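C-alpha cells as discussed.
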C-alpha cells in the first residue's frame, strides 16, 4: 500500500516519478492506467511528475539521447516480436488444416447428398415392394378363393358318385354284375337303369383299382351308401369271390383335394381326441363326442375349428 505524494491518499496501484521517486495515484499523476501501461519499462523510468517537470530546466535533446531512446524502443519491439515467426508458422498450419477440413467437409457434403439420394431410391423401392406385396397378397387371396371354388365344383360334380374299394380285379369282369351282387347283399336293388356309368379307377401309389359308380339320382346314391354301411362286415366272399376274404368299403367319391383334406382332418382329429369322422353328401364331418356340435370341414382353414 502506497501513499500519494499529492493527495496523501493510500492506493495499491499508481505511478512513480523517475526524478523525485515519489508515488502518485493515476488521477494526481494526470495519466490513465492504460496510458501508463503503454509507456513500457524505459519510458516509465523516465516519466516525471508535474512538479519535477516544472522545476527542472529544459534539457536539450541530444542525438545520443534520441538514439538511446530509439534503441530502447526497438529492443522492446524486438522482444514483443521474438515469437512472431512461430506465430506465423502456427497460422500457416491452421490455414492448411482449415483448408483440409473445408475439402473434407465439401467431400462429406457430396457423399451425404449421394447417400440421401440412395436412401430416397431405396425408400421408393421399398414403397414399390410394399405395393407389390399388397398386390401379391390380393392375388394369393384370389388364388385361394379360385382353388376353393374349383375344388368345390370338382367335388359337386361327384355328388352322384360312390367309390367301392377292396374288390379284386378279375379278367373279363362285369362291373354291373359286381354292383348288382353288392346291392343284393346290402338289400338295396340297383338296376342298370339307375346307373350313369361304372368304371375302374387307379388308386394313388397302389397297384389296386377302385370301382367308381355314377348314379343318375343323388338320392339313390345316398341310399345305396347308407345300405352298404349298415353291413359292417361286407366282404369279397359275399359277392362270390373265392379265396381269402377281403373287406369291401363303399364311400362317397371324393376328389384328390378332398381326399388330402380328409387325411389331414383325420390326423388332427385324432390328436384332439375326436371320436367321429365321416363323409356325407361329399362333405367331411367331425364330432368330438355325442354331446358336442358337428363341425363341417370344407377347406384347410376349417381345420382350425378342430380344438
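Sequence:
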Amino acid at each position: 500500500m502506497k501513499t500519494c505524494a499529492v493527495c496523501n491518499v493510500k492506493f495499491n496501484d499508481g505511478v512513480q516519478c523517475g526524478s523525485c521517486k515519489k508515488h502518485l495515484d493515476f488521477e494526481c499523476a494526470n495519466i490513465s492506467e492504460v496510458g501508463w501501461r503503454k509507456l513500457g519499462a524505459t519510458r516509465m523510468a523516465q516519466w516525471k511528475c508535474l512538479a519535477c517537470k516544472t522545476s527542472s530546466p529544459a534539457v536539450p535533446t541530444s542525438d545520443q539521447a534520441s538514439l538511446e531512446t530509439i534503441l530502447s524502443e526497438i529492443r522492446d519491439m524486438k522482444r514483443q516480436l521474438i515469437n512472431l515467426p512461430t506465430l506465423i508458422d502456427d497460422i500457416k498450419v491452421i490455414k492448411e488444416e482449415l483448408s483440409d477440413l473445408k475439402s473434407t467437409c465439401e467431400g462429406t457434403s457430396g457423399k451425404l447428398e449421394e447417400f440421401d439420394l440412395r436412401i430416397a431410391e431405396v425408400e421408393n423401392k421399398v414403397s414399390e415392394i410394399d405395393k407389390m406385396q399388397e398386390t401379391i397378397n390380393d392375388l394369393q387371396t384370389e388364388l385361394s378363393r379360385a382353388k376353393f371354388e374349383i375344388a368345390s365344383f370338382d367335388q359337386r360334380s361327384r355328388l352322384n358318385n360312390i367309390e367301392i374299394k377292396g374288390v379284386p380285379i378279375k379278367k373279363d369282369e362285369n362291373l354291373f354284375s359286381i354292383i348288382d351282387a353288392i346291392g343284393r347283399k346290402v338289400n338295396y336293388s340297383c338296376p342298370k337303369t339307375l346307373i350313369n356309368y361304372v368304371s375302374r379307377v387307379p388308386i394313388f401309389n397302389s397297384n389296386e383299382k377302385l370301382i367308381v359308380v355314377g348314379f343318375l339320382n343323388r338320392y339313390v346314391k345316398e341310399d345305396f351308401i347308407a345300405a352298404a354301411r349298415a353291413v359292417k362286415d361286407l366282404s369279397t366272399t359275399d359277392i362270390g369271390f373265392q379265396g381269402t376274404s377281403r373287406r369291401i368299403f363303399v364311400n362317397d367319391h371324393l376328389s384328390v383335394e378332398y381326399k388330402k383334406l380328409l387325411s389331414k382332418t383325420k390326423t388332427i382329429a385324432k390328436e384332439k381326441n375326436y371320436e367321429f369322422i365321416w363323409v356325407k353328401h361329399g362333405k367331411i364331418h367331425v364330432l368330438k363326442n355325442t354331446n358336442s356340435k358337428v363341425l363341417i370341414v370344407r377347406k384347410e382353414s376349417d381345420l382350425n375349428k378342430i380344438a
